[in-house]
Write a structure and sequence with these properties.
Elements: E1 3-7, H1 19-31, E2 35-40, H2 64-71, E3 76-78, E4 89-92, H3 96-100, H4 105-108, H5 116-127, E5 132-135, H6 142-146, E6 151-152, H7 158-166, E7 170-171, E8 180-182, E9 187-190, H8 199-216
Parallel strand pairs: 1-2, 1-4, 2-3, 4-5, 5-9, 6-7
Antiparallel strand pairs: 8-9
Length: about 220
Amino acid sequence: MKNIAVLLSGCGVFDGAEIHESVLTLLALSNAGVKYQCFAPDIEQMHVVNHLSGEVDVSHSRNVLVESARIARGEIKAADTLEVNEFDGLIVPGGFGAAKNLCNFAVNGSESELAPETEAFISEFVLAKKPVGFLCIAPVMIPKLYGKGAKGTIGTDSDTAQAFNLMGGDHQNANVDEIVVDLDNKLVSTPAYMLAGSLSEVNAGITKLVAKVIELCDAK
């Protein structure tokens, strides 16, 4: 049975992993008869956002691993415990946590860097030539991880696409229910909530992405 790692970035769209994207990813993996294990870096979040008001709560701090455990129902491991040989591939849901906690794209745009814990974790899959799927805003990490010419999509937002290309990537516009596949790098991406107007639209793209990641696990 295949085993897929899922890298989370907190809990909540504005400061962590997008909950719907994360859960739909786990559901698609489960429906495909695939095992999965959630991971998250054991680091502090960039900040805490009140999801009712949208305001930053400067009086609190939260840990990415602890918050991600909410989504994983406690079944989660710290990113630095990864044994990459135990996994066939990786999927990284979106949410602002991907752009604030896993990297600093939300602040630095095309000049962004990955958090050391994130880079170390994902790079193990890259070096092992195992398939990786990125959702929503998470694909902005692709150029830093895979280098010049790596293909990916965040949908159709021109500013984010331009930043993707400035970092050396090759951005491909895509609709919410579409995936972009870079076969050379075993990369899959889909826009998810970068474009979605409903949960069903998010699910359409994620279901395709999960299926493709599983298919690429057997690709030579």
